[in-house]
Design goal:
By secondary structure, the protein is of the alpha+beta class. Helices cover about 25% and strands about 20% of the residues. The chain is built from five helices and nine strands. It has a seven-stranded mixed beta sheet with strand order 2-1-5-4-3-8-9.
Length: about 180
């Protein structure tokens, strides 16, 4: 299946997912004291690489919040799968579930089918990381087709600190339409 990629500078799609509490979270909108949003899409409970990445990411949640970036992770897992996964996770940031195939396609994610029923019972997204700015536009996109190719979190945090400094006046990159 081919994917339609989101383009930097475009408005991030208005996608909602469910939290374990039952409330909806809007992936495109930051809340509270933050004005940017970081959406981390992960494969699901069946992926130990994703579990490790999410646990590592938790160590950056406070620093992200201090620079005004709200963090949320999301997968296509069911509520029951997220409950099971929560036992392996050591995270303080919200994790949502229930991404639909249409939503995965809207975000331009690569989608995989399970190799067997032991892996999972649904098609699932490959990793993606999106930074949505205060205007609701896609500032940064990182999309992979495997779980072991993701952004270095130290470098990402450092870059976000620099990017959000108004003195740097750094534009959204990758917008050339030729």
């Amino acid at each position: 299946m081919y994917t339609n990629k989101l383009h930097p500078g475009e408005t991030f799609p208005d996608i909602k997912a469910k939290l374990l509490s039952g409330e909806d979270t809007n992936l495109a909108k930051a809340a509270g004291d933050t004005n940017w949003k970081m959406v981390v899409v992960y494969r699901g409970v069946h992926c130990p690489v994703c579990t490790n990445y999410l646990n590592e990411l938790d160590g950056y949640a406070d620093d992200l919040s201090k620079i005004g970036v709200e963090l949320v992770a999301v997968s296509a897992d069911s509520k029951e799968q997220l409950k099971a996964h929560s036992k392996k996770l050591r995270v303080s940031f919200p994790i949502a579930y229930g991404l639909t195939q249409q939503q995965m396609q809207e975000m331009g994610l690569y989608i995989s089918s399970p190799r067997s029923e032991k892996e999972t019972d649904h098609n699932f997204p490959e990793p993606g990381l999106f930074i949505i700015n205060k205007d609701g536009d896609l500032q940064i996109a990182d999309i992979s087709n495997v779980p072991f190719a993701r952004p270095n979190l130290d470098l990402l945090l450092s870059g976000l600190r620099w990017l959000k400094d108004p003195d740097n006046n750094y534009p959204i990159r990758g917008t050339f339409r030729g």
